[in-house]
Specification:
Layout: H1 2-29, H2 36-62, H3 104-120
């Protein structure tokens, strides 16, 4: 399965580069770039390039090999906004003695207690 996926990604990248090359060739060889026909051909080539580039990019993202530059990492402890609302926590829920998930307000209290103990030491 891995060989087929690698071949598929390679073919998709190759076709993407062909469509991008067609855009460059169209821009260079066309006398006037701002005609309806030229803009239509360039737009279609760009859409097709994006369509073929999506599969390899999503694969790289799923394998955590594609860093997303402006995406921040989430914090481990729940944060409380100025209005007192608790932000959703992406980690596993805290469990009580019976194995039930603790409510968000209890998680916030536990997180605040942990911060106060760490700062007093």
């Amino acid at each position: 399965m891995s060989k087929e996926l690698g071949l598929l990604n390679f073919v998709c990248i190759l076709v993407t580069l062909v469509f991008l090359a067609m855009i460059v060739i169209t821009a260079v060889t066309a006398g006037d770039i701002l005609t309806t026909d030229t803009l239509f051909i360039m737009t279609i080539c760009l859409v097709m390039a994006v369509m073929f580039a999506a599969s390899p990019l999503l694969y790289l993202k799923s394998q955590n090999k594609l860093p997303i530059p402006f995406m921040k990492k989430t914090s481990e402890s729940p944060t409380i906004s100025a209005s007192g609302q608790i932000a959703a926590s992406p980690r596993k829920p805290m469990l009580d003695a019976k194995g039930r998930a603790m409510p968000a307000d209890v998680r916030a209290i536990v997180a605040n207690l942990g911060q106060k103990e760490a700062s007093s030491e």
